[in-house]
Amino acid sequence: MLYISASFHSMLTTHSQPHQVLSCSSISSVSLPVKKTRKRKMVSESLGHLFLISFPAQGHVNPLLRLGKILASKGFLVTFSTTETIGEQMRKASGIIDKLTPFGDGFIRFEFFEDGWEQDEPRRQDLDQYLLQLELVGKQVIPHMIKKNAEQGRPVSCLINNPFIPWVTDVATSLGLPSAMLWVQSCACFASYYHYYHGTVPFPDEEHPEIDVQLPCMPLLKHDEVPSFLHPTTPYPFLRRAILGQYKNLDKPLCILMETFDELEPDLIKHMSEIFPIKAVGPLFRNPK
């Protein structure tokens, strides 16, 4: 966990204004009087501000939120954002509040946005259509949220997103901000999608559904060992399109934060790091105290 803070902090400070990471352990998290509330605000404004944006699904929200808590505990101000629909569920399930909350040596806060569709909108059932709608709304809403935070004394240092919403990188670029992407699968899966997307090696297809796949720095993969979404018989081709969509923008992020660790996939991480700046940040299954 300390590796996350040291490496990521050093990268951020080269892309943002100098800031001092202060200890907030003396600030109580409950029933703060006005004087301490002001102190909390002053301390939070001195921290590097990371703005995390998640695709609105539980399997995406949970890992990114765990990463956010780890980064907050190490002395960052973290804003976690996703759609208001997920925000309502999080308030009911976890009792979160939308106000600044001390967490370890930093702070965490939540800021949600509407996706522009009613809950009973039938197009929600079509992932391709929903991804287009989310991009259309997100590209308008997120810059406004970033600007508002700056006006309130919380300028954002970096945007972090997870797969399915690669347009966040475009937003960051347009705002002159660095960005990072959290990949929540292994480096082996990441490499498989990368080589499939770029066509560097043959994969099973409709004509040859049972060919084996040899990827650099990996043992031979039998046809039924490649990620299931890449197989021609997958019943979920829309998920393959959604995942591969992230690879269009992977030359833009400051780094790719990967849910793995160096001892698990040393050779493969080293190889893929020659193509992309990869930072292994796993395992993320434990929440920081």
In short:
The chain has helices spanning 2-12, 34-45, 58-73, 84-94, 127-151, 167-174, 187-198, 237-244, 266-273; strands spanning 49-53, 77-81, 101-103, 106-110, 158-161, 179-183, 255-258, 278-280. The chain is of the alpha/beta class.
Q: What attributes characterize this protein structure?
A:
289 residues; quercetin 7-O-glucosyltransferase activity; single chain; 38% helix; alpha/beta; Rossmann fold; Limonoid UDP-glucosyltransferase-like; quercetin 3-O-glucosyltransferase activity; 8-stranded mixed beta sheet; 9 helices; transferase
Question: Can you put this structure into words, describing what you see?
Answer:
This is Limonoid UDP-glucosyltransferase-like. One of its GO terms (molecular function) is quercetin 7-O-glucosyltransferase activity. The chain is an alpha/beta fold and 289 residues long. Strands 3-4-2-1-5-6-7-8 form an 8-stranded mixed sheet, with helices on both faces. Residues 16-36 have low confidence and may be disordered. Helices cover 38% and strands 12% of the residues. The chain is built from 9 helices and 8 strands.
Describe how the helices and strands are arranged.
Layout: H1 2-12, H2 34-45, E1 49-53, H3 58-73, E2 77-81, H4 84-94, E3 101-103, E4 106-110, H5 127-151, E5 158-161, H6 167-174, E6 179-183, H7 187-198, H8 237-244, E7 255-258, H9 266-273, E8 278-280
Parallel strand pairs: 1-2, 1-5, 2-4, 5-6, 6-7, 7-8
Antiparallel strand pairs: 3-4
